[in-house]
Amino acid sequence: MPFHIRGDFNGDQKTDDAWMLLQKDNRGWGLFVFLAQSGGPYQVIKVEENDMDLSPQSMGIELIEPGQYKTACGKGY
Length: 77
What we know:
single chain, mainly beta, 4-stranded antiparallel β-sheet, globular
């Protein structure tokens, strides 16, 4: 499914989701993470928000193995 990934993002053995979502008026988009919580609603984290200076079709999300990676800014994470 485009603009969606599923995995255990925080190591708690629960399945989490990440979605790139469009605003209702198509004037922007955001990347949101939904962390599963025991016995409760998802914890929603807004990771990125964009007002269409970048089209969502030019972006992507991908599930990768845990580890350290060099980021675009070169700082690593």
